[in-house]
Specification:
By secondary structure, the chain is of the alpha/beta class. Helix content is 36%, strand content 17%. It has five helices and four strands, in the order αβαβααβαβ. The chain has a two-stranded parallel sheet.
Length: 111
């Protein structure tokens, strides 16, 4: 979701025949990219966004997510990477960590 100058780092992290799906571009929609790793590793770069889709399309995507991904989460086969949790009262500290980009994974607020 970063885009901008971070995009090349995402490309460089991909395994052979890896796929990078962009769903947003917080650091800008315009990027300059070295195509050598894309070609050498047979990478796929693609993107999507929900905004222009119809309510019906969004509903179908949500249903497929519930059917295909939720069981993997419930079984513990797939799990998010949590960098750190913060109580809601420390939301400012959580935002500070987000802005520092010194984390890998999700930052979670708890109540």
């Amino acid at each position: 979701m970063i885009g901008g100058d971070y995009y090349q780092r995402n490309v460089n992290c991909l395994a052979m025949e890896g796929r990078l799906v962009s769903i947003s571009y917080l650091k800008g929609a315009t990027v300059e990219i070295n195509l050598n790793p894309v070609m050498r590793n047979r990478l796929t770069l693609t993107g999507s966004t929900l905004r222009p889709r119809t309510v019906e399309q969004k509903g179908a995507i949500a249903a497929a997510l519930h059917r295909q991904v939720w069981p993997l989460l419930e079984a513990g086969k797939v799990r998010p990477v949590i960098h750190q949790t913060f109580p809601l009262a420390e939301a400012a500290a959580a935002h500070h960590l987000i802005e520092s980009s010194a984390h890998i994974g999700k930052i979670v607020l708890t109540v």
